[in-house]
Amino acid sequence: MISNRLERCIYHNVMLFLAFMATVFTVFIVVFIIGYVLIRAIPHVSWELLSTKPSYINETIGLLPDILNTVYIVFATLVFVLPLGVGAAVYLSEYAKNIKVKRTIEYAIESLAGIPSIIYGLVGMLIFCQYMSLKTSLLAGALTLTIMNLPTIIRTTQESLDSVPISYREGAFGLGANKWYTIRTVVLPCCIDGIVTGCILAVGRMLGESAALLFTAGFAHKLNGFIDALSSSGSTMTVALYVYAKEQGRFDVAFVIAAIMLLMSLMINYTAGYLSKRIQRKRLVK
Amino acid sequence: MKNRIQQDFTDILAKGIFTFLGYLNIVFVVVICFYLIISGIPAIFKVGFTDFIFGTRWASTAQDRAFGILPFILTSVYGTFGALLIGLPLGFFTSVYLAKFANKKVKSFVESTVDLLAGIPSVVFGFIGMLVLVPSIQYVFDLPDGSSLLAAILVLSIMILPSIIKVSIGAIQSVPYEYELGSLALGANRVETVYKVLVPAARRGISIAVVLGVGRAIGEAMAVMMVAGNVANMPGIFESVRFLTTAVASEMSYSSGLQREALFSIALVLFIFIMAINAVLNLVMKKRGKTK
């Protein structure tokens, strides 16, 4: 009896300790990554690095083209992915009646979410760069990212569409509005928050993406306007990080980019968290 | 009257557009499959199926060329398995702690750090792995080069943590409260209740977490490319290795002819792996729906 008791006591403490240590270790990893990057990056941050383009004559490196390319590609992708994603979500939650069709489409979306980015990069290269002859360009990269991020947008939009009470729609129908008018004026405005959250999550994914962009958007560091940039090759921040770290051995620049990426993802997490909290509160009020 | 007709027209038009957008997702998947199969099949036949899948030598640019991808397949399998071996216990215990033992403040803090971990781009993982893990492995095990399967496994095990932790927390928390009360009433202490009652009850959800982790690990390219050394060796823990993903990524930019076709075939093999994982995932989820 006593040994049993002792055994249980040991079990209790060991298992509790394991769980606690695992948590501490997980937090330690995150803190270590962030701390390490920030500490190594801070000495190299300079306004010049962030605001110029690389020059072979002066042998300086500037990140401005990469920063701009990232902004361009995120913007272009959002322009494509928003209508496609929101539209598909509206179809799935408002129009689709045949359960089999709905299941098939949802399975397709799940499959899209599961495909690794390197395969997107390859297929994007085949379809957009070669078949549609866009060459390696930001536009090809943006189109690839569009398909990659569809699942994120569709899922979050669908969730918020489903949370709009049926009575809203019934009210609108009762007043004589047809389906499209109801969706446009009643349903969609109610889920703006959800769509915005989806966008932010998608932007986070786009910023972090590199494997899919390597072959579709290329590595060039040229400083371009928006329209020119779309049709020419350009590296985003993550691709630039890879090139500087692995191929040119410029760890100082790579650290600065890594620090910027971390800060961005920190901001994105914070905003997404804030928004979803606000949505929950709104729902409680209802 | 005219207004009415116009409205009906836009209604029908809207319905058409939305239906199109819904079906478009199926089109995307079909097109991706189609392109991968079309461009992946030829090389497999040219090299020969068994030579391609079970060949142990990959020398795509050498004089006497060989296209055997067994090293890549085995590396991907071992790498994923190794990442699970480390990442699963770590993620599992963390999620148990967060779901049942931690107080509210600790929980929300740790959860936000896990979210942060999920948001870190894969190149950053690869970069830190390259600068921290690789030299330390080289130093600790006294190797000529630290870029190895071990480094890749360690990086992958950290990268799969967020999905494992998040899904497992959800699974453990969704176990009905009565189970917990029943177990406590029978005299089990809290720790026993959690490990012997709640975890077994949540095992399906945890298995979903495992499958998700496998999917993420097997599809990861950039981080692995920066730490695994990228040589087409048969896998060994301290060997410099190449995964299915990195095999595609590392040669794509300068490939041509049969080499290029073979790379597409590798992508096809990887795609089949992923689709199999998706199918398993779907199966587990369906079963879960039924038992509930």
UniProtKB/TrEMBL annotation, chain A:
Domain of life: Bacteria
Transmembrane intervals: 12-39, 71-92, 112-133, 181-204, 225-245, 251-276
Subcellular location: Cell inner membrane; Cell membrane
PROSITE patterns named in the record: ABC_TM1
Domain ABC transmembrane type-1 positions: 67-272
Cross-referenced Pfam families: BPD_transp_1
Membrane topology (UniProt): Multi-pass membrane protein
Keywords: Cell membrane, Membrane, Transmembrane, Transmembrane helix, Transport
PANTHER family (UniProt xref): PHOSPHATE TRANSPORT SYSTEM PERMEASE PROTEIN PSTA-RELATED
Family: Belongs to the binding-protein-dependent transport system permease family. CysTW subfamily.
The protein, known as: Phosphate transport system permease protein PstA
From TrEMBL, chain B:
InterPro entries membership: MetI-like, MetI-like_sf, Phosphate_PstC, Phosphate_Transport_Permease
Membrane topology according to the record: Multi-pass membrane protein
Pfam families: BPD_transp_1
Keyword field: Cell inner membrane, Cell membrane, Membrane, Phosphate transport, Transmembrane, Transmembrane helix, Transport
Location(s), subcellular: Cell inner membrane; Cell membrane
Major localization listed first in the record, in broad terms: membrane
Start and end residues of each ABC transmembrane type-1 domain: 73-281
Ranges that cross the membrane: 20-45, 65-93, 114-137, 149-169, 206-228, 262-284
Function summary: Part of the binding-protein-dependent transport system for phosphate; probably responsible for the translocation of the substrate across the membrane.
Sequence similarity: Belongs to the binding-protein-dependent transport system permease family. CysTW subfamily.
Protein name: Phosphate transport system permease protein
Source organism of the structure: Succinivibrio faecicola
Lineage, opening ranks: Bacteria, Pseudomonadati, Pseudomonadota, Gammaproteobacteria, Aeromonadales
